[in-house]
Structure to design on (93 residues):
């Protein structure tokens, strides 16, 4: 089972270059419990980069760069399928 509704959609974030950025999301309820990943401008985010951490539904960028700006979506996935959250915009000043 994978429901349609996200318990929490990420919201827009505005930060200055060099500041940390945090986006939070809670995926729909599902069985098995969905795993969470993030996409930026439609491309899966690589959390192998040191600055980027995905823990639970949180996306944390420790040292924001100009090129981190863009449209982010949270993706909840399990064996039934995947659901994408509403789009949240990260603005880097």
């Amino acid at each position: 089972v994978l429901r349609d509704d996200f318990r929490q959609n990420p919201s827009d974030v505005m930060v200055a270059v060099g500041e940390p950025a945090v986006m939070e999301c809670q995926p729909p309820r599902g069985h098995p419990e969905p795993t969470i990943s993030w996409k930026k401008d439609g491309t899966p985010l690589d959390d192998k980069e040191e600055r980027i951490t995905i823990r639970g539904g949180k996306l944390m960028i420790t040292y924001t760069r100009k090129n981190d700006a863009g449209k982010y979506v949270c993706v909840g996935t399990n064996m039934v399928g995947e659901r994408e959250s509403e789009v949240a915009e990260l603005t880097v000043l």
Notes: The two ends are 41 Å apart (CA to CA). Strands lie at 13-15, 21-24, 35-40, 43-44, 52-55, 58-61, 70-78, 81-84, 88-92. The CA atoms of residues 18 and 63 lie 5 Å apart. The mean pLDDT is 95.
